[in-house]
Design a protein that fits this description.
- It is a single chain.
- The chain is built from 4 helices and 2 strands.
- It has 155 residues and is mainly alpha-helical.
- The chain has a domain of 96 residues.
- A two-stranded antiparallel ribbon has the order 1-2.
- The radius of gyration is 20 Å and the shape is elongated.
- The two termini are 30 Å apart.
């Protein structure tokens, strides 16, 4: 089976439901709405369905990375309200598939990584292993945010 094919197996107990957010850019305005007895079903082409599922999974991974980032920022910095505000911007961008919010969060992550590298040279009180570990975690958060940003369509 190629990566472009998504196979849906019919459930004998009822219809199969995908837990894709209605704000997902690949699930809105791309399918044909069909009225059924008690709900509306959106028929999505297979390529669009694959993209919708991939973006949905990327959002889940991204939100997990943000929660780790929130925990580490609260533990390490006295300016955690600013960090928490920027993490909220990142979560909003992920949930609403908003590219401009994600770009603000990516820029914030780049600044945070640069500032943590600067801590290696300016602060000698902290252990270098802790700062390097924090940079690795921040790098993963930046990677997941850039990955999600690239998966979203242009408009």
């Amino acid at each position: 089976m190629s990566e472009e094919t998504v196979v849906l197996i019919e459930n004998p107990d009822g219809p199969l439901k995908l837990g894709i957010n209605e704000d997902n850019p690949y699930s809105s305005n791309t399918g044909v709405e069909v009225e059924t007895t008690n709900e509306t079903t959106l028929l999505i082409p297979s390529e669009q369905l694959y993209n919708a599922i991939a973006v949905h999974r990327a959002v889940i991974m991204f939100k997990g990375a943000i929660y780790i980032d929130i925990f580490l920022n609260i533990m390490m910095f006295a300016i955690w309200p600013v960090c928490l505000m920027m993490n909220t911007v990142g979560i909003y961008g992920a949930v609403r598939y908003n590219k401009s919010s994600l770009m603000c969060y990516i820029l914030y992550q780049c600044l945070l990584i640069v500032s943590k590298f600067a801590m290696l040279f300016l602060v000698v009180k902290m252990d270098y292993a802790i700062i390097c570990t924090l940079n690795i975690v921040q790098g993963y958060v930046l990677y997941s945010s850039v990955n999600l940003y690239r998966m979203l369509p242009l408009s």
